[in-house]
Amino acid sequence: MEITVRLYLTFRTGRFRTETCECPAGVTAAGVARRFAIRDADIGMVLVNNRQAELEQELLPGDTLSLFPVVGGG
Amino acid sequence: MAADYDLKVWRVNVRTQTVTKESVPASWERLGGRGLLARILLDEAEPTCEPLGPKNKLVFAPGLLVGHMLSASDRLSVGAKSPLSGGFRESNSGGSTGLHMTSMGIKALILEDRPSDPAFWTLYLSLREVRWKRADDLVGMGVYEAAPRLLAEYGNKVAISLLGPGGENQLGTAGIQNLDKERIPGRINARGGLGAVMGSKRLKAIVFDDEGGQKPPIKDPEGFKRAQKAYTQAVLAHPVSHTYRDYGTAANVLVCDALGALPTRNFSSGSFEQAESVSGEHMRDLLLKRGGDSNTSHACMAGCTIRCSNIFGGDDGRTIVSPLEYETIGLLGPNLGIADLDVIGRMNWQINDIGLDTIDVGAALGVACDAGLMQWGDSERAMELIAEIRRNTPVGRILGMGATMAGKVLGIERVPATKGIAMSAYDPRAIKGTGVTFATSTQGGDHTSGLTLRVKIDHRDPKGQVAASRTAQINIAGYDTLGACIMSGFGYATSPNAVRDLLNARYGWNMGDDVLQVLGKETIRLEREFNHRAGFTKAHDRMPEWMTREALPPYDVVFDVPQDEMDDIFSDLD
């Protein structure tokens, strides 16, 4: 199935902003992150279709996964 | 040999031009920063007083942990009854003023009364002498020109708190500017109109000369050193410190855009189609490419290891403004339909120079766009309107009084403000916990009183938001009492006993594990008591009605946290 992955801040370094990738059914947000060598501990916020989600969340075909490093307030 | 460190309350009567140094009352000893301001105003100021009248008091207080070069913990709190909200208001800033006050042994500086003569003055404070000097030559002058003149006169080592023309004109958006460690006046106690209160006291500048001062004594130096080490290591190890060092607070632009909470065209949308071009990611690329003065990382206070500030340079590498922050980008950028960081930086410089709060001015300009005074994205017109504020024209005054006043005069209902104070760059319909903060905090629409962005919660679901906001509000009120920056919270949170151990070692106290909560709750209780006496009720803890009705694109959310839940948020503290 196709998943759109969006990366932000330090995660973009040496990677990309947005990419579509082919993933096996049942893949989790964490599974996709690992594919791009992003460690769980570095992930501050996970959005699936722009809504707050857990790393363990299973993704569905056509989902957009956004991964942010830890961020806070200004 | 230096005399013993002597912590005092310095009281200044601006009418009689007298300064007295008093011992610290017992009930003030264990408070600092924001908590101490609330205590002092409750003890001494009439809550129903006219904010710009002789009965209001303007108080400066460094936090309890200021003075030891603890990373991100040298902040200065300034407070008074706010001309914008009509209630208690604190605003804190980095820079060097808090550190100098602590070296001089000033627990709090209380400015009271009001001169009958309209002339402005510079007040010079040192351990040896107090001097008053007419500031006629500085009146009308922006802070970027006034600060070097004051430094030339009083020496390069002093700290200065000063007004731009906005404060002199008692505009509701006026703040108090302080020097950063490079002596540039860009660290502002921005919010709530405290600069207008200082203007009513006819002080253009206060100069703090800490010559002959000393570091505050530490009761248990070994214990302090241990706690400081644990805290510093926690700050350095925390990934958020690295994010902010590389990107500054502008890291939040795309976070908020993704959440649908980036204020766009006067809070009519939560997503901006050109968000990438005003993002922290883009700013970093620009600054690295431009070089010269540009720097992606800069410490606003001596000893800070997070260094979230930046120097924003133009194409020629020369400084446009320092720092350029997320809230400013949000309110002056997407909120006005402007997508060019250089333009936003130049607007920021002008607003700083006039000595105003970029958030409330940005929100007022958004309201002005809705009223047809300016077209979305027309940055030239935005600059003209800012120039009107500087010239104190009628239109300039309407905008310079802030978003709430601008909305009333221009007939616009869509004003993003609570308690008369414009919201920072987080649309509360899409980050509802922060909306609860905007509605229930004594501080009005201010993210620094309890941002919930990092809470692992569905920000668009009304459930659980009151609890999230309450925790954030209590914690930050505690940090504001220590003089700790919002950024230091990550370090303190991961070195759990650091706050307790630092306070106990510094003062010889015996505070428990819950010290941060104790300080935070006490601060909020005092502030609410002041506001209660000023006439505030639950009716003041309301989100603007239009935000409960107008759905925010792109996720079509309204603010729907139940009012009765919000009303009980601090019922155990009252």
Polypeptide structure, described:
The complex is a heterodimer of chains A (about 70) and B (about 575). With about 70 residues, chain A is mainly β. Chain A has one domain (about 1-70): Roll (Ubiquitin-like (UB roll)). Chain A is built from 1 helix and 5 strands. A 5-stranded mixed beta sheet of chain A has the order 2-1-5-3-4, covered by helices on one side. The radius of gyration of chain A is 11 Å and the shape is globular. The N and C termini of chain A lie far apart (about 40 Å). The mean pLDDT of chain A is about 90. Chain B is built from 23 helices and 17 strands. In chain B, a hairpin with a 5-residue loop joins strand 14 and strand 15 (about 320). Chain B has about 575 residues and is α+β, with helices and mostly antiparallel strands. Chain B has helices spanning about 25-30, 35-45, 95-105, 145-155, 165-170, 195-200, 220-235, 240-245, 250-260, 280-290, 325-330, 340-355, 360-370, 380-390, 395-400, 405-410, 430-440, 465-480, 490-495, 500-505, 515-535, 545-550, 565, and strands at about 10-15, 20, 60, 75-80, 90-95, 105-110, 120-125, 130-135, 160, 175-180, 185-190, 205-210, 295-300, 310-315, 320, 415-420, 420. Chain B has a domain at about 10-210: Aldehyde ferredoxin oxidoreductase, N-terminal domain (Aldehyde Ferredoxin Oxidoreductase,  A, domain 1, 4-Layer Sandwich). Chain B has a 6-stranded mixed beta sheet, sandwiched between helices. The longest helix of chain B has 19 residues, at about 515-535. Classes of the chains: A mainly beta (about 70), B alpha+beta (about 575). The interface of A and B includes residues 9, 41, 69, 71 and 73 of A.
